[in-house]
Structures are given as C-alpha cells and as structure tokens.
Amino acid sequence: MLQLIENAQNHPDRTAIISDGQEYSYKALFSASAQLASLLLNGLSDLDETRVAFMVAPGFDYVKVQWAIWRAGGIAVPLSLSNPLPAQEYVLKDADCSILVVDDYYHYFLEPIVDKQKIRLVRMADLVQGTDQTPLPDIAKTRRAMIIYTSGTTGQPKGVVTTHLNIESQISTLVNAWAWSKEDRILNVLPLHHVHGVINVLACALWSGACCVFVKKFEAEAVLKLLTEGEINLFMAVPTIYYKLINHWTTLGVDEHDIVKTALSKFRLMVSGSAALPVSVMEQWESISGQRLLERYGMTEIGMAISNPYKGERRPGHIGQALPGMQVRIVNETNEQVVAGESGEIQVKGSNVFREYWKRPEATSEAFTEDGWFRTGDVAKLNKGSYRILGRMSVDIIKSGGYKISALEIEEVLRTHPQINDCAVVGIPDPEWDEIIGASLVLTVPQAFDFEVLKAWLKERLPVYKIPRKYLIQKDLPRNAMGKVTKKELKAIFM
Q1: What is the pTM of this model?
Q2: Percent helix / strand / coil, the chain, rounded to 5
Q3: Is residue 31 pLDDT above 50, yes or no?
C-alpha cells in the first residue's frame, strides 16, 4: 500500500479534513476512497495507469477522489477549476483520459466535451453509502501517479508526470524539513492543480496525521478571521494572498490590529512560494503578524528543492539552501558550474524530480543534461550561503547592451518608492540595445508623479545598470486568476 494512504491507518479517529462545516476522520477518508476506487475499477483488477481526470471542489471529496484513483492503480489528472472549456478539453485529450470524475457543480460545465471525447463519466452522486468494495491492487512506487499541466513560458501546456516515488520523496522531504506533526492544522486556500496546494499543504498534512481545513474560495476578510481564531497553526500562500491580507488589515481598527498580531504570532510556521516574495511584502507581514515568512523554491517538475531553514536565519530576497537529499548547482551558458556570487541557471537532481513530460520525449530530453540534471530555466546566484533568485531565463532576465539584468531586482527597488504600490518590469526589443527596460507602475497618486525625479532616484539605487531606460506607465496591470501580474501579457501591451 502507498505510504501516504497507509499512514492514515495509524490514526483512524483523528480529523483529516474539515470542509463545508464538517469534520472527516482518516477512517472515513480511507473507507470512502476504497469505495470509490472499487467503482472506478468497474470490474477490473487494476486500472494499470489509466488516466483519470477529475474536477471536484476543494475539500473531502477532492481528497477522496485523488486517493481512489491512486488506490485503483490510475494516474490522477486534476483539472483547474478556473480554466475555460477549451483548456479543459485540451487536457482531457492530451492526457488520453478514459475516465472523468466530477461533482454535480462541474458536471454541467464539462458535459459538452464528455460525449465528444467518449470518456466514461463518473459523478460523485453515483457513489452511495454501502457501495461494494472489491480487492484493490498493489501499487508499485515506480508507477506513474499524477499528471499536472504546466504552461511554462512557451507553447501549449505540458503534462508533468510524477511517480509515487517522486511524490513520496517530495512529501517526506518537506515533512522533515518543516517539522510537520499530527498536531498541526493548516488552512488550504490554494488551487489543487498545483504542487503548492496538492503537495506542500494537503499531502504533507495527511502524511503527518495533521488536519487540513478548506474554504470554498479565498476572501481576505474571511481568511484573516479564520487565521485569528486560534485553531490553525500553519499557513502557506502565494505573495499575492499575503498582499491582499495586508490590504484588508489596513482597514481594521487599532484594537483589531492587536488581536490579529497576538493570534498570528502564535503560528508555528508561515510559508510563501510559487512566485518571488517582494521584500516589502515580507517586511509588512512581519510587522503585522510577528512572523518572518519562510520563502522556498520549487516547481511542478521537482516539487521543492530549496528552502530557507525552519530554524535559523531567513534572509529577505533569498530562498535558502538545498533541501536534504536534493542536489542543486548553478551553471553558466556552457553548462559549467559557476563559483559562489556568479549568476547562472539552477539545475536540480534527486528522487523528487519528475519522470517525463507526457507524450513529449523530445521536450523531456531537452529538459535534462546528459548527466541527468534537470534544467529549471531559472537564474540565481549563491550569495553568502543562500540562493537568490534573479528570474526566469526566458522572461525575467533582460539582455541589454551586453548586460544580463534581473527584472525582479529592479522591481524590488521600485516597490520601495513611497509613491509606487506595485510594478512589473519587462525587456522591450530595441535595435540598438537588444532590449531596453520597461516598467509598468501602479501609483498612489498618478497626477502628482514626476518621472524625472524617479529617474534620478533610480540612478542612486541601481548604479550597476549603466544603460538607457524608458519608463512606461499602464494604469491597470494585467493579472491572472491568482492576481499575479503576467509579464507575457504586459509585453504584448508594450509592443
């Protein structure tokens, strides 16, 4: 039996999931997932890596479906709850899904493509209490377990295939590094088609015998209230969520500020990831909560590879050190390892690294070096024993006049300006300089802003970039569903 599911039998009566106002024990999760696994098998002895897509709201039913797929021998393909119908159709077709599991809410949304692709549809309503259980197959850890689709920065989304061994490595590493225990209770507000929500929060909690609390959707007021009620001691989110919580906090009165800080200061751990954490947001959150956020680094293909320490110095603007069992190196354009202080691409090797891109052997081959290192495409440097991310090679590194400039570093400086609320920096094609720097700013008072003063202010703080700059202003920054500025769309505006 898979270790994650076997662990559930060690604490059957503990609460595993809280969702929709109800508590569900590990015993209930174990039993319900076995019943659904039997329904998925439909007379077969083993799904034998059949791809099973599912679109189910976060909560007990989501976990039940995920576990059932694994216990029946299938490959879990979680669908995004926010993607439009064409994007869902693409995933179902690309992954060659034979079964689709949906709850009633999403059934009608996906109905138009079910008949077209001739997929077996399983509705959550089809499962009734007392469904006969059949013997479940033994699952080797080397089997494919999950396909998560990631768009990266170019082309159609690729299916990232992880095995049960990959997933167990990712989970166990974080459980040990971040001192998870069965006494933990974490609030999950993250999408469950990304490793952040699926592995870092949900799987780590269930592996440890802890409790995972779900909310239907993120609302800053409701989430901050839950965090201050004293039941939750762990929280993980993206920088945008912390930014929204900070904005809501500013609307509260002085007495409420004291209540929030007292409650949040008792948390065991708070983590930020999935995007670079602006130093300004880290500092604001620390002043509000008394918590210095733990920033870490990972991606769909590798889970987490680098993390600031659970105990020890967490340096602003840095992602920490390689996690135990992970091999990390920084290389130059000729794939030679660079010395500390020099920038280059992060490459990773370990049992956490994914198996392949689904049906893309060429892309899989290109993603690895000849000696087996995964090319992350992210640029960083080792700075006094801690890694500092400079950005994506394809998006955040601006090549201008022979310089390689980190858009993220410029954004960090811009955010410290008292009249700038938010910003995004991109490289804009230029015949003379290859690229020039373009900055889109969200200003506190646009009418009173002096760009010449900003240029002089920047020159004092960015002396290393001895190249021409153009400063562009766009009133509303394009954002994705998570509220993050999307540089791909931003480039389109500037061009």
Answers
A1: 0.83
A2: 35, 25, 40
A3: yes
